[in-house]
Write a structure and sequence with these properties.
This protein is of the alpha+beta class. It contains 10 helices and 12 strands.
């Protein structure tokens, strides 16, 4: 592989080369990720077919090819063939190749930069909320222990056995509150990382969920079979993804579908760390969507959209994902809610 090819394959920006007929002659891996189809499927396509909803942009490509003048647009809104809208900084440069001219098209997704800023803010908020919760838990558990101990001593001294039932209620409620506080804190054990396959986790979660849900709900697979193993704590990741998947099935109210999806993500920045490759695991449902009033706070403890919910499942899932050096985000609208989990494929800083 020559140096130019190596650079192209590791760029986070999408680079496409269009021939004189505006057919795709070359695309880098970032372009494959952006369009979510392989280079083999992209190569040879007309730009108009690859971007069927962007006639004015295709017209600009043709004009640049004819005039030989480059152009640049910042914050360009582009609709992809699958309906996704993205915002990019676009640079188009005509390049002479032998007697013909070709177009070098460079797209830098602005959405990605906004996502990085949003992730950094989320990480800071998560660290602050976890520190607050752990401090509060410590202050709650100490008097609970004293309350439980006092109830046990009182039970031994009561002359009437019937009165002991009241002390047993105190003990049971103290234990229940202690358990609630422990769940709020989340897993507090070191990660036991070993090579793990995301599909092994998905299949285990799927089997557990299928045993619980009504017949009107289906759990579908959309896997990338080429994904390699990555270092993870199998049991803890099962718990995290199970919490999210259960939330998705409960949101469907007895009818609908949940999709478990896996993909590879290239050149991912999580917090301050850059990773060449990451697993992107998605849990999608076609339910009513996350209510607007809690959408920005759904990963906080005790925040829930269900009357019978504890609001701890997503908080615990987020804590587990962050312990793995990963990131979780939610995109929601009516009939489509997607939880995306990014997990580094390598230990260390990537």
């Amino acid at each position: 592989m020559n140096d130019c090819q190596h650079i192209l394959e590791n760029l986070s920006a999408t680079v496409i080369v269009l021939d004189p007929n505006l057919r795709v002659r070359s695309v880098n891996p970032a372009g494959e990720m952006l369009f979510q189809i392989s280079a083999r499927q992209i190569l040879g396509q007309l730009a108009a077919d690859l971007l069927p909803h962007n006639a004015s942009l295709i017209r600009q490509f043709g004009e640049a090819l004819q005039s030989g003048h480059p152009f640049t647009e910042h914050g360009l809104r582009v609709t992809l063939a699958d309906g996704r809208d993205i915002t990019v900084d676009c640079a188009v440069t005509p390049v002479a190749v032998n007697a013909d001219s070709e177009l070098l098209v460079e797209w830098t997704p602005v959405d990605r930069l906004l996502r990085i800023a949003r992730e950094e803010k989320m990480l800071d908020q998560h660290a602050t909320s976890r520190a607050l919760i752990r401090g509060l838990a410590h202050e709650i558990k100490n008097p609970l222990g004293g309350l439980r101990g006092a109830a046990q001593l009182l039970e031994r001294r009561l002359p009437d056995a019937e009165l002991a039932e009241y002390t047993r209620i105190i003990i049971r409620e103290a234990d229940r509150l202690r358990g609630l506080v422990d769940r709020m804190i989340g897993p507090n054990v070191p990660l036991n990382k070993r090579p793990t396959n995301i599909h092994q986790i998905f299949e285990h979660v799927r089997s557990l969920v299928l045993a619980e849900i009504p017949e009107g709900i289906s759990v579908r697979r959309d896997y990338d079979p080429s994904l390699p193993e990555f270092p993870a704590d199998l049991d803890q990741l099962i718990q995290a993804i199970l919490n999210i998947t259960r939330n998705a099935t409960q949101a469907l109210d007895g009818k609908g579908a949940v999709w478990l999806r896996s993909r590879v993500e290239r050149q991912v920045t999580i917090g301050q760390k850059h990773h060449r490759l990451a697993v992107r695991a998605e849990i999608e449902d076609n339910g009513p969507g996350v209510p607007d009033e809690i959408r920005e706070h759904i990963f906080y403890p005790m925040i829930t959209g269900r009357a019978d919910g504890t609001g701890l499942g997503l908080s615990i899932a987020q804590d587990i994902i962050h312990q793995h050096g990963g990131m979780i985000e939610c995109v929601s609208r009516p009939l489509q809610t997607i939880f995306r989990i990014y997990l580094p494929m390598e230990d260390g800083n990537g």
